[in-house]
Specification:
It is a single chain. The protein is α/β, with parallel strands linked by helices. It folds into 2 domains: about 1-30 and about 320-430, Aspartate Aminotransferase, domain 1 (Alpha-Beta Complex), CATH 3.90.1150; about 45-320, Type I PLP-dependent aspartate aminotransferase-like (Major domain) (Aspartate Aminotransferase, domain 2, 3-Layer(aba) Sandwich), CATH 3.40.640. About 40% of the residues lie in helices and about 15% in strands. It has helices spanning about 1-5, 35, 45-55, 70-80, 95-110, 130-135, 140-145, 170-190, 215-225, 250, 280-285, 305-320, 325-340, 375-385, 410-430, and strands at about 10-15, 20, 25-30, 85-90, 120-125, 155-160, 195-200, 205, 210, 230-235, 260, 275, 345-355, 355-365, 365, 390, 400. Helix 4 packs across helix 12 (about 305-320). It is globular, with a radius of gyration of 22 Å. The protein starts with a helix and ends in an 8-residue tail after the last helix. The structure holds pyridoxal-5'-phosphate. The site of pyridoxal-5'-phosphate has 14 residues, from helix 5. Pyridoxal-5'-phosphate binds near residues 95, 127, 128, 129 and 234.
Length: about 450
């Protein structure tokens, strides 16, 4: 907070393509997709046109008691994409989509006469948002410890996450098997008290770019079925192509009961999120009024027509531009360029899938957090990258690549070049240019 207050003012007043423009006319390539949600860059395109059109018709009309056209059309589109899901509940950001999913899971069991199923299983390092329910199932102590009096940790079991880098050299199969064994022990012992297991789809990002090994999510999904525990999949950050698949849980061959979407849903142009559920979940909320089984949850801006119009145009543009093909090509390009980081003495691990990459920096086996002149690594990366015309935000000692999904090759090249330059600057600051034990 203090650093931010003393920092040079960089007020964004415009967006041009994949660049942001500040009040002094400086431009920054948006290397973090404006908090991982931007798809098409900034400025004019079909998505903004659709939003303008909608605002001229009706800016907002509630879903309490009424429906509206864009939210109905979008719901149809979403269940078409998200195979297995049949119903859509809208909210305004990822955290609220998760809160809704947690309430749905608990009430599902209550409505089914199993009100003792009130607990959750969540993965170590999981991040699901900043509201109280989300923090309770989240696991980033540094973020959440100050708020612990608000959180219901007692109701959350922690399952291990398959991070190979920190697994002491064990091979992938053994790491996955031991994570699943531990998860199964939890489910076996407590399944009659557990409502749902919640996990990010395909990878954790905020928890340190942990890309799940093949088959892991599928096997978790099978365990949930075996122990009659609902599976809530959080695709907020990893859906819509971030990991190279339009619908990540399908690519992972997992079979969730509830799925949360957000971020790229509107191309990053409007705060909109959705909690999707199967028909089985939905049915449990249908009863006579006096039975009190309805879902008591709703937001003023639920199913916002402008957001839904943006999402519809965004998804149309995915098809028209064949975005998934572009992402596949850029995945290969990123992969080939990451080789340039591999032999650097301060690069300890590189994790990459689709349009997400994390480059973990360490020295003598310890994460690099502070440089020799006491500058914090993340502060250094952020300020130096802005000076080089790219906006980057690392995650602690992990340099992060998470560009707008439709980014062009030239811009991607620039982001990677700047990351390489930064790596050189960090080495100079550490006074370590070679012969460092990783
Ligand atoms: C996996 C995941 N879930 C949920 C959220 C919360 O979304 P929001 O910031 O829109 O509340 C985030 C945000 O980064 C996220 O990465």
């Amino acid at each position: 907070m203090k650093d931010w207050g003393t920092w040079r003012n960089r007020v964004i007043v415009d967006g041009k393509g994949f660049y942001l423009v500040d009040s002094e006319g400086r431009t920054y390539l948006d290397g973090i997709a404006s908090m991982w949600c931007n798809v098409w860059g900034h400025g004019q395109n079909e998505v903004t046109d659709a939003m303008k059109k909608q605002i001229e018709k009706v800016a907002h009309s509630t879903l309490f008691g009424l429906a509206n056209e864009p939210s109905t059309l979008l719901a149809e589109k979403l269940v078409e994409l998200a195979k297995g899901m049949r119903r859509v509940f809208y909210s305004d950001n990822g955290s609220t989509a998760i809160e809704a999913s947690m309430k749905m899971a608990i009430q599902y069991w209550k409505n089914k006469g199993k009100s003792q199923k009130q607990q959750f299983v969540a993965l170590k390092g999981g991040y699901h948002g900043d509201t109280i329910g989300c923090m309770s199932i989240g696991y980033i102590d540094r973020f959440f410890e100050a708020y612990s009096p608000l959180l219901s940790k007692a109701r959350v079991h922690r399952a291990p996450t398959p991070l190979l880098y920190k697994s002491g050299g064990r091979d992938e199969n053994r790491v996955v098997d031991s994570c699943l064994e531990r998860t199964e022990q939890i489910l076996k012992r407590y399944h009659d008290k557990i409502a749902a297991l919640v996990m990010e789809s395909g990878a954790q990002i905020a928890g340190g770019v942990v890309i799940y090994p093949d088959g892991y999510q599928k096997r978790i999904s099978e365990l949930c079925k075996k122990y009659d525990v609902l599976l809530i999949i959080d695709e907020i950050a990893t859906g819509f192509g971030r990991l190279g698949n339009m619908v990540e849980y399908l690519a992972q061959k997992s079979n969730p009961d509830i799925v949360c979407l957000g971020k790229a849903l509107t191309g990053g142009y409007f705060p909109l999120a959705a909690t999707l559920a199967t028909e089985r979940i939905f049915d449990a909320f249908l009863a006579e009024y006096h039975e009190n089984k309805q879902f008591y949850h709703g937001h003023t801006f639920t199913g916002h027509p402008i957001g839904c119009a943006a999402a519809l145009a965004n998804l149309e543009l995915y098809k028209k531009e064949n975005l998934m093909r572009r992402i596949a090509a850029n995945h290969e390009y990123i992969r080939s360029r990451l080789k340039e980081f591999e032999n650097n003495p301060i690069v300890a691990d590189i994790r990459h899938k689709g349009m997400l990459a994390g480059i973990e920096l360490a020295l003598n086996g310890k994460p690099i957090e502070v440089l020799r002149d006491r500058t914090r690594l993340n502060y250094f990366v952020m300020t130096k990258s802005l000076d080089m015309g790219v906006f980057l935000r690392p995650l602690g000692n992990i340099m992060l690549m998470i560009p707008p999904l439709a980014i062009g090759r030239e811009e991607l090249q620039k982001i990677i070049d700047v990351q390489l330059k930064l790596l050189g600057k960090i080495q100079t600051k550490l006074g370590k240019t070679n012969r460092v034990q990783r």
